[in-house]
Amino acid sequence: MSERVRRGVLIVGHGSRREEANQDVREAARRIGGRGGFELVEAAFLEIARPDIAEGFARLVGRGARHVVVHPYFLSPGRHTRGDIPVEVRAAAERHAGVTYQITEPLNAHRFVIDASVERIREAEGWPTLVEEAAVSTFTSQVARRGVVYLVGAGPGDVGLLTLKARDLLLSCDAVVYDYLVNPEVLGLVSTRAERVYVGKVGGGRQTPQAEINRTLVELAREGRSVVRLKGGDPFLFGRGGEEAEALHAAGVAFEVVPGVSSALAAPAYAGIPLTHRVFSSSVAIVTGTRAEGGPHPGALAGLASAETVVVLMGMSRLGEIAQELIAAGRSPETPAAVVRWGTYEGQQTVTGTLRTIKDEVARAGLRAPAVIVVGEVVSLRGRLNWFEGLSDTVVGNGLFVEREAAAVAAL
Ligand SMILES: C[S@@+](CC[C@H](N)C(=O)[O-])C[C@H]1O[C@@H](n2cnc3c(N)ncnc32)[C@H](O)[C@@H]1O
């Protein structure tokens, strides 16, 4: 971008009914402007408070900005910064021809924020270091070895679903290379001395090319570092972990694979949908709804419709077509179907319907990716087995606090 393009900075807070919390965000915007030497800075809010994102964006444009850098300020990492903000900002930008924008990484995952918190806590007298703790843990299974790349599954979101092996490798590695579906809370385990490399989509924009990721892994390992390549869910299920393992093998770099709890299994489970059941289903197919370059055509779904339960990942942009393909392949239009968004996160949302209605139900509820689609009679069990979204003020797994969100309730 040319140096002459005037940039504006939009600091986006969540918005609160407590006015002093909103005031904190405005004050932060003022201080960020001052410290950063940014001439055009505005605060805006995702919900509740004013100005909203569209208004804040318009103010910056009105003050002369032609490129707006949007910074989510302490917004919850999953739903807001990966979902709502990109959508709202895109809509705001579309009202101003020729004005471009960029969304920064969420602050919550920034290593200085994490490091500062760790530093504060560890200032408590006599607290052992993270590595010392890993060494005395009853379950410690592994310390990351130098020159080795570990392809590690981070699980679907709930930090409590991380494996012990993943935890130990994260605690002891020298570098972690992670992408967009990894819950930033998991990164809190990584030592403050370790390098963090983000290779996911930035603000709905550019995805780091696979060749660049492969090169980064090889280079870090050749520098003699112990490297965790951290992926959402399971690294070998639609995670391109296979390609990375091939690249490491070709480069002569040692690697190990640490399976993770896949969203294909966990999101339905947290929505109260068992994928198999003695009465309803004895087979499951897990498929992608999106055609990869040179990969299988989504029409392959037709061949899989005979599985009693079908789980589709990366299918939200083709939900209607997927339902039609399954009907064309012989499934009844009345087959129950569900869509689970941000499965296992506290803001998990689930919408149910049938193959005939699911597209409209999802549109009505405003559900977007990332989501898992489940098709089959097992979906009907959710009526009795929906255990997670009904939890309120309950501690789940590794201290994750769960509170049912109004949006999730409304979507049911
Ligand atoms: C590139 S695939 C990665 C899958 C991952 N390796 C796994 O095993 O879960 C990305 C897709 O996984 C699904 N996904 C991942 N995490 C999810 C979550 N927490 N809730 C719902 N769907 C999720 C969505 O379908 C998303 O488009």
Give the class-level CATH name of the largest domain.
Alpha Beta
Unreliable stretches, pLDDT < 50, 5 or more residues? Answer: 392-412
Q: What ligands are attached or bound here?
A: S-adenosylmethionine
| Strand order across the largest sheet | 7-6-8-5-9
Number of strands: 16
- The CATH architecture name of the largest domain reads 2-Layer Sandwich
What number of structural domains do the residues give? 3
Main beta sheet: strand number and arrangement? 5 strands, parallel
- The total count of helices amounts to 15
Rounded average pLDDT: 86
Shape label: globular
Rg (CA only): 22 Å
Distance between the termini: 45 Å
Q: Proportion of β residues?
A: 15-25%
State the share of residues found in helices, binned by percent. 25-40%
CATH superfamily of the largest domain: Tetrapyrrole methylase, C-terminal domain
Return the structural class: alpha/beta
Architecture overview:
This protein is an alpha/beta fold and 412 residues long. It folds into three domains: 7-108, Rossmann fold, CATH 3.40.50; 115-261, Tetrapyrrole methylase, N-terminal domain (Cobalt-precorrin-4 Transmethylase, domain 1), CATH 3.40.1010.10; 264-411, Methyltransferase, Cobalt-precorrin-4 Transmethylase, Domain 2 (2-Layer Sandwich), CATH 3.30.950. It is built from 15 helices and 16 strands. The chain has helices spanning 19-36, 53-62, 79-93, 111-122, 130-136, 164-172, 184-187, 210-222, 241-251, 263-270, 301-304, 319-328, 358-365, 382-385, 406-411, and strands spanning 7-13, 40-45, 67-72, 100-103, 148-153, 175-178, 195-198, 227-231, 254-258, 284-288, 309-313, 336-341, 349-354, 371-375, 392-396, 400-403. Strands 7-6-8-5-9 form a five-stranded parallel β-sheet, sandwiched between helices. A five-stranded mixed β-sheet has the order 10-11-14-12-13, sandwiched between helices. A four-stranded parallel β-sheet has the order 2-1-3-4, with helices on both faces. Helix 11 links the parallel strand 10 and strand 11. Helix 2 (53-62) packs across helix 3 and helix 8 (210-222) packs across helix 9. The longest helix has 18 residues, at 19-36. 42% of the residues are buried. The site of S-adenosylmethionine (SAM) has 25 residues, from helix 10, strand 12 and strand 14. Residues 156-157, 181, 231-234, 237-239, 262-264, 267, 313-314, 340-344, 369-372 line the site of S-adenosylmethionine.
